[in-house]
Amino acid sequence: MITNFKELPSNSQTIINALKDLNILDNNNEFQSQQQISIRLQSFFENAQQKSQFLKSLFKIFEKETQEEGNLQKKLKLLLLLHILLSSSIARSELSKIFISKQINIQINNTTLGKVCQQYYFYLYKLASQTTFINEDVINGDILIYFTLSNQCNLGISIQSLIEDVESFQNNQLIGNIVKSIYYDLQNIAIFIIKDVKSLIENQHNIKQNKLHILELYKECQVLQQKMLGFYRFNRHFSHFNQIMPPFSLIIEQHYLKELQDNKPKIHSLKHLSKLSEEHVKFQPQTSKQRQMIQFEFVEKKQQQESPQFSFSN
Questions:
Q1: Could you list the residue range(s) of the whole structural domain that residue 13 is in?
Q2: CA-to-CA distance for 87 and 286, rounded, in angstroms?
Q3: Which has more confidence, 107 or 183?
């Protein structure tokens, strides 16, 4: 438990009281619903200044807690709360920048649950990194963005093997909530990738994108679909399974693929693809409207008054 409040921001006690009300600082496997979290934390989002102070203080509390020995459930709860906030439109952009401002070395005592905690933090750090990366238009539509996002899916899926080693993980409410939150992320990311790749392939005659790269990306999507299906089945261990949808499938008529293969019969590796990056023509995904439909929005809308309602995307 954090005892040295002098090192924390002045508003930390109010936030700690809220975390106690939500049982987040209890070292057990219970976790409140997102609706309960939304109601309790709503007062911290009444204006931009309060929101900024809350997010900075919350992350500072998390940072202090990670340096304490043990209390792994508490660390996982704080990570899950940060994950929920990263998934919300009201906090995503600002919290992502805070999240990547400093890498944290979590005290895990080399336990199985500790390894899950460490991997979960690494997953969220990468998720926040990609949020700011896209917000700042560093990539600006480069096709390699899809490989980057696919790697994020692989990172999230890899936590399954660690969780399977946790004793009685099937009955662990906290672990179940973490798996569900990660699956929602990956489902949205996979849909975003697959729909754009489908558009790229079916409109290959109308774009200047290197067709070899598109074909390599199609193969990447096929692998991703298989991994997503396996992760979807893993969710059967938890009570939330009936709340989630199966992975999105990439269905493309064969004549489009034949045209793509006939145009570029030689397939290069992803390593070679990176070397050809200088040849890339900037491409703006043609399914940006669909991206909004699946709630995979990185950029917050401007010139629109921010709602004080603290809501989540899932």
A1: 1-113
A2: 24
A3: 183
